[in-house]
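Inverse folding, one chain.
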């Protein structure tokens, strides 16, 4: 097996340090007001800064994602808000892939917890593009575990990114429409919008065992 280059090891490692620093800066008070105050000074570059901050919700579980959705929808024009959320999700998941591939189990244990390896191991060995795309689409509630598992497998980065874009974009667009229409200022309507999105995500994931069993013979040991 070809030994990873120093650059390939350092890039995700340095990125991880940056994200941990962001987590410490945000602390436990991740609110919409605080996020807005962080991105406003950057003016036209605010969407880019927003993407960087939102990526951390995929990589560092203690950071809640809901405030980021709200800030994007109320702060940016809808097309920019939607694009920023989609890009942040794809980049955040890709970072999890790179962390697993180049930093290995020690880093994954620290970020996702020791117990997470049991769930991750179920998907390790996915190297078939179609199979991974299906699992990615139907595994929305397990997206972090699937990203780590793909990093441990033989799936190439290019195929991983393409499958992630194809699988996550439709559901993210649907979620964006539901949440943006539900943000009327009424707490009950906002809560209902987010509840609907979570119900869809977990509802889709209920089909994952069927997809997994049907395609298990295509899995290859990494």
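Residues assigned per position:
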């Amino acid at each position: 097996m070809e030994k990873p280059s120093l650059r390939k090891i350092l890039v995700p490692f340095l990125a991880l340090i940056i994200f941990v620093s962001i987590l410490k800066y945000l602390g436990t008070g991740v609110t919409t007001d605080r996020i807005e105050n962080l991105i406003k000074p950057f003016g036209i570059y605010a969407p880019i800064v927003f993407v960087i901050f939102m990526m951390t919700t995929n990589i560092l579980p203690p950071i809640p994602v809901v405030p980021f959705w709200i800030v994007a929808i109320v702060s940016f024009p809808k097309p920019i808000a939607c694009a920023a959320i989609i890009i942040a999700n794809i980049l955040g998941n890709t970072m999890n892939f790179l962390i697993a591939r180049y930093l290995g189990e020690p880093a994954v244990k620290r970020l996702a917890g020791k117990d997470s390896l049991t769930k991750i191991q179920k998907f390790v060995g996915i190297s078939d593009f179609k199979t991974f795309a299906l699992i990615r689409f139907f595994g929305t509630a397990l997206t972090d575990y699937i990203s780590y598992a793909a990093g441990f497998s033989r799936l190439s980065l290019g195929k991983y990114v393409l499958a992630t874009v194809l699988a996550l974009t439709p559901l993210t667009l649907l979620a964006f429409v539901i949440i943006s229409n539900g943000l009327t200022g009424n707490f009950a309507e906002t809560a209902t919008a987010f509840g609907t999105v979570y119900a869809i995500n977990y509802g889709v994931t209920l089909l994952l065992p069927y997809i997994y069993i049907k395609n298990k013979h295509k899995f290859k040991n990494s």
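The two ends are 11 Å apart (CA to CA). Residues 6-218 form one domain.
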